[in-house]
Design a protein that fits this description.
Layout (H helix, E strand, L loop, with lengths): L2 H9 L6 H7 L5 H13 L1 H4 L4 H11 L3 H54 L1
Length: 120
């Protein structure tokens, strides 16, 4: 068991939710986040918190709720946006490089033509 996330959950028990937990520890997978959070809530260390039973009840209500579906759906959409943004930036850089190469080739050709005309 990762003691850091357990300690964080204990320290934040007054306003703990799966959403806050998943965001704090960068969970990207609903199943993994739910499984880990469930293990923490059921742990001996966490059961010493005054509101451990309430948090477990709230977590059980959360699972399968519209709020859970929306949270993970929004997360997936955001990941897709980030991936698309990254791809666009990469394509932009490739395009800029290509234009720079073409412009430098045209400039070189222009300079060569001027020199050859001067030499005539």
């Amino acid at each position: 068991m990762n003691i850091d996330d357990v300690n964080w959950c204990i320290a934040n028990a007054d306003n703990l939710t799966l959403r806050r937990f998943a965001e704090q520890f960068n969970y990207t997978n609903k199943h993994s986040a739910n499984q880990r959070y469930s293990h923490i809530l059921s742990s001996t260390a966490f059961k010493k918190c005054q509101n451990s039973t309430q948090l477990l009840t709230e977590f059980n209500v959360w699972k399968g709720s519209l709020e859970e579906v929306t949270f993970w759906g929004d997360y997936a959409i955001n990941q897709e946006k980030l991936a698309a943004d990254y791809a666009l930036r990469c394509e932009g850089i490739k395009t800029a490089k290509q234009y720079a190469v073409e412009a430098s080739e045209e400039l070189r050709d222009s300079i060569r033509r001027r020199r050859s005309m001067r030499d005539l």
